[in-house]
Recover the amino acids of this structure.
């Protein structure tokens, strides 16, 4: 399937065998798996220090929670076989109070890639952990090549501050003569900023950032409808072409989504999805979801004695059985807007008005997670 690719780094024999088996089981549609997840995504927290105008979490009320470290350690049975752990979700993962402890634990599995997406504001205080615990990939979200654009979209952001932090990170990487972390910029494209995509490529080149990835804006509230790039084919083509030209000249790797009408998915609700085979996504409330872009709660990790039992539970098997079946797939999958799997021919991939979306965290789960993070002394004080 075209949606099952992961970043390439050296793998152990056990990881390679698991990857090969996972490919076979995915392509054959097997629902009970002998392979383990190739990637595990931990939404460390749903807290964020920004209020970005396009973020779905800004349109709902919820109780914040941090994923207990124990949930990550419970997945340790997978880590000798899993290729990548992604610390990413609807919050700023680097705000987790025990981030250092988490990275230190994950680093005990030397060939397990560690990857997080960040708004860049915390880079100065986590730089030591990045190098000490071998974080392989750092994706920095920026939504404009000028302060006027970026800071108006990313409320709480400061383009000059974030770029300076990235520069210091890359300078430190050179100083230490290390080949990690791989850094890229991720830009959410909308009417007001798409013209700055070529300039973002130039910024990346100037700083020594090897890659720029662009994703389309998803509309979660009516106020942003005018910012959508749905049916703006010529506008998109124009700026994509200029960005490609500049990327070719500067050797920056540019990743762009398909132009509407040119996606190979045709009229299907989404591209063939490999996530239920390849990935295990655990939200900060302790619920497994199909992916970050789905509100569907599949299973609660606390209901299973082991993560291997959860991985092949009846509900996970059901998800694999129906995710690519147009007759049986869930409503969330039918209106998929995930940057990897969405069918960009469809208006529904751009506009989610009236749909249930991912930030529907379980309140009870939030309370449990908070308690699990507290020390016994803190629990007694709260009681």
């Amino acid at each position: 399937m075209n949606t099952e690719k992961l970043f390439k780094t050296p793998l152990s024999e056990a990881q390679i065998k698991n990857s090969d088996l996972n490919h076979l089981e995915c392509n054959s549609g097997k629902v009970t798996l002998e392979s383990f997840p190739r990637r595990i995504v931990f939404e460390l927290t749903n807290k964020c220090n920004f209020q970005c105008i396009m973020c779905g979490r800004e349109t709902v009320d919820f109780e914040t929670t941090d994923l207990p470290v124990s949930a990550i350690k419970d997945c340790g049975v997978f880590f000798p076989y899993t290729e990548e752990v992604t610390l990413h979700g609807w919050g700023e993962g680097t705000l987790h109070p025990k981030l250092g402890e988490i990275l230190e634990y994950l680093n005990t599995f030397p060939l397990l890639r560690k990857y997080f997406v960040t708004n860049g504001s915390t880079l100065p205080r986590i730089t030591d952990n990045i190098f000490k615990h071998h974080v392989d990939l750092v994706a920095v979200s920026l939504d404009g090549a000028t302060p006027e654009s970026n800071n108006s979209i990313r409320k709480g952001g400061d383009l000059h501050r974030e770029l300076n932090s990235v520069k210091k990170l890359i300078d430190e990487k050179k100083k230490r003569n290390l080949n990690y972390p791989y850094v890229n910029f991720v830009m959410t494209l909308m009417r007001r900023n798409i013209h700055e995509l070529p300039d973002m490529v130039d910024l990346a080149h100037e700083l020594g950032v090897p890659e720029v990835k662009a994703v389309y804006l998803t509309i979660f509230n009516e106020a942003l409808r005018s910012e959508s790039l749905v049916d703006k084919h010529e506008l998109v083509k124009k700026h994509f072409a200029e960005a490609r030209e500049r990327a070719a000249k500067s050797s920056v790797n540019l990743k762009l989504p398909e132009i509407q009408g040119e996606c190979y998915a045709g009229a299907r609700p989404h591209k063939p999805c490999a996530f239920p085979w390849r990935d295990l996504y655990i939200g900060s409330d302790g619920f497994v979801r199909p992916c970050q872009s789905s509100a569907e709660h599949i299973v609660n990790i606390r209901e299973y004695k082991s993560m291997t039992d959860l991985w092949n539970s009846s509900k996970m098997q059901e998800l694999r059985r129906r995710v690519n079946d147009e007759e049986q797939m869930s409503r969330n999958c039918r209106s998929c807007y995930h940057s990897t799997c969405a069918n960009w021919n469809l208006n529904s991939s751009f506009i989610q008005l009236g749909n249930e979306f991912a930030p529907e965290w379980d309140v009870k789960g939030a309370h449990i997670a908070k308690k699990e993070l507290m020390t016994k002394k803190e629990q007694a004080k709260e009681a």
